[in-house]
Amino acid sequence: EKGASQHDITQGPQPQAPAVQVAQPVAQQERILALNTMEKKNWMIHILFLRQEYQECLNLIDSLAKSQLEKSEFLLFMKGLVYRVEGKIQESLELFKECHMLNPNNVACQKEVAKALYLLGRHNSAIEVYDSALVLCPNDWQIYYGKALSYATLRNNDEAIKCGRKALQFHKHELIYELLAKVYTLTEDYAHAIEVLVEALEMTPENPELLTSIGSLYIRMGDTDTAFQFLGNALSFDPKNSRAILAIGSITQDKGDHDAALLKYRIAAVYNPNSAQLWNNIGMCFFGKQKYIAAIACLKRALYLDPFEWIISFNLGLVHLSTAQYASAFHFFSTSLYLKPDFASTYMYLGIALNKMGDFQNACTAFNKAISLEKDHTTYFNFSIVMYN
Question: Which H or E run contains 10?
């Protein structure tokens, strides 16, 4: 029994001496505590930014910046984001540049620098920054998307399409599809624009905005039946979609049913009363019904809402030409040509207005310009009438 007890003692766990904790220097403890506090504050800054409580976010950033001996990359980055939201683009650019100097390998900071340059209208500089960011991160779809935006603004449509297609290889995002469709539409390549939007529709088949955009493109191609189908689907998912209602109204208006179109426009006006396109279409409905005063009133409201839309000035010229107000018609046709100088019909109607005002020589010049742009039988017919008279 005595031996057994000794055996049990030797086989059991051996007692260990208590661990001796090495006391850390006071300065190091304070630094660890400060870092923990900073992490909590960084989290709070991010939450305030997401809540759009920008002034409180800036106050917290400034208070933390004063308590630090060195500049913080995170604080500079978040302050730049807040400044950009508030419209202080130049100030945000300087902060992002300073952040980039602290960490040249931070791709996120480089992208923000490029975005700020884009917003300032310095598109070539933005493209250069995006190119330098691609060296560090060649598979980032946002970089290619940003380049595509810059190229599209510069009207370099080929490069915009190339960058947009490259972005789709890394991430299929709705924004990329919309940008590509917009560029294709600007080049009047409606078939490819529809192809891009249909591909996007496969990811979000119940997206009313995509359905409306596809329907609008089919209207431009003259396929109103298919357009009506897509627009109807858009309204089934969003009955208050003013763009879809406006597009369906325009189809009805083109068929000559002005009263039915006005009923559609009345619904659209409830949800989007400040749409220039809406008031333009309403004005042309009244023009079709030969209610010229109402037409001019609606078109001038449209012109107030969007003074740089060439079709509104063109339509105002048509209405004034029909009411024998040739000087006013000349004014609106001239404005339309300044905004869109390659539309042949505007030169034709300008020639008619000039002839009515007794300026035969300039009228012939306008007709010749219209013929050089497009050999349309209407232009030849009106020109022959002017020559005969």
Answer: helix 2-11
- HSE-up (13 A, CA, CB side) for residue 243: 15
Q: In 10 A of CB 99, how many CB atoms?
A: 25
Q: Average pLDDT of 365-369?
A: 90
Sign of the torsion angle spanned by Cα atoms 139, 141, 142, 147: positive
Q: Of 200, 194, 211, whose CA–CA distance to 248 is shortest?
A: 211
Residues comprising the chain, all counted: 389
Q: Provide the 10 A C-beta neighbour count for residue 165.
A: 14
Residues 37, 45 contacting (CB under 8 angstroms) = no
Which structure tokens are listed for 174? 């709705």
Distances in whole angstroms, Cα of residue 324 to Cα of each of 305, 318, 354, 364: 26, 10, 12, 20
Long-range contacts of 272-275 (CB under 8 A, 24+ apart): 272/242, 272/246, 274/305, 275/242, 275/246, 275/305
- CA-to-CA distance for 159 and 182, rounded, in angstroms? 14
Task: Name the residue among 151, 98, 65, 168 with its Cα closest to residue 112.
Answer: 98
pLDDT in tens, 99-157: 888 888 889 999 999 999 999 999 999 999 999 999 988 889 999 999 999 999 999 99
